[in-house]
Write the structure tokens for this entry.
Amino acid sequence: MSAYLRSGRLVVGLAITLAVTLLAIVGPWLAPHGEYDIVGRPFTDPTLFGTDYLGQDVLSRVLAGGRSILLISLLATVLGMGIGILIGVVCAYAGGWLDEVLMRLNDVALAFPQILLALLVLSAVDQPAAWMIVLIVGLSHAPRVARVARGVALSIVPRDFVTSAEALGESRLRVVLFEVLPNMGAPLLAEAGLRLTYSIGMVAGIGFLGFSTNPGAADWGQMINENRLALLVQPWAVLLPVIIIGIFTIGTNLLADGVTQVAAKGGQ
């Protein structure tokens, strides 16, 4: 643990990530106006960051729009990591034909761009529910996580402590849960940070393209789309959500890089 705390990159990344997350959680209570309040004419400057295309306060909308995108992104990351780790570890530990079949199917899934698959599914519904976006984004992460998890697990399965546990008659499930998975922590934490970064970008992109769970609600991705035509007139309506998404992305990337660096040094 001390090695992680000594990593400046990791500490800065964690601080940025937590700061943006905290802002998203408490933002609605800090907002100077309500999420739907009209405070002036569209694209004018009666408030600190001006108004959006309906005359709503940009700052208030940004503060109110973070919860949904971060929650959906977090749940999608957890889902994708869970499914991907399961597939990767099973393939590495079982080997043989099961490994070949699952990995070839995994390669097929990797050939398709994540956002393309998401738009293909979402275009079939009028207004997607939040669980649907979580499911789509999470499943799109699973093949990439599975590839990483399998690679990490393959270096652990042949080790002596795994062989000893098998020789003592431990069940396969117990060997996986108590011998293999605990030794995969650092690489999977780094991968989780990257997946969270991609989830934020993907969920924001889905909102930007008009597939929002609530078209009238504040949403960082949707705000960019709604106000992009007046970028030169009132840039803050677009720039403020972009800046926050960018800062959060930097934070999660620093966090993932920090975990990777510490793990590469053996946690010393």
The chain has a mean pLDDT of 86. DSSP finds twelve helices and no strands in the chain.
